[in-house]
Amino acid sequence: MNHHKFTITQYNPKYAEQTVEMWRDSKEQAIGQKEIHSFENHLYFLKSILPEQFQIDLALIDEKVVGMIAYNEREISQLYIHNDYQGIGIGKTLLGKAKEQSSGRLTLYTFEVNEKAQRFYEKHGFKKIGSGHENEENLPDIQYEWMSK
């Protein structure tokens, strides 16, 4: 995989469709099941619901959305990287931004089936603190926590 230069930018609605496409593909790949929400609902969630509580940042390569994160000072709500651009530091960079702007502690949930995500979070200092959170996919999940030193 050649290392593309990516840039991190604040979410802009002009990237909404691309972001949702990438998010859905990445999530479906990660959990091995089809996205349960329609594209329209997902788009509405990104445009109207998510920004109320979370800062959203995107990773771009030549105006193409290759990653997204939604976070506030206490939790990470979403972190998805384009399937073709994983392993080049995008996730680590986005996570770094969330850590910098955090209160010193961040929690997140990840699906139990998503072992790749668990390895990623554990590598970056997150520890398992719980499981069994209710989610719409009805999949078992794991809660992680990171604390600054």
Automatic annotation (TrEMBL):
One of its GO terms (molecular function) is acyltransferase activity, transferring groups other than amino-acyl groups. Residues 6-149 form the N-acetyltransferase domain. InterPro entries: Acyl_CoA_acyltransferase (IPR016181), GNAT_dom (IPR000182), MshD_Acetyltransferase (IPR050276). This is GNAT family N-acetyltransferase. It comes from Neobacillus novalis. The lineage of its organism: Bacteria, Bacillati, Bacillota, Bacilli, Bacillales.
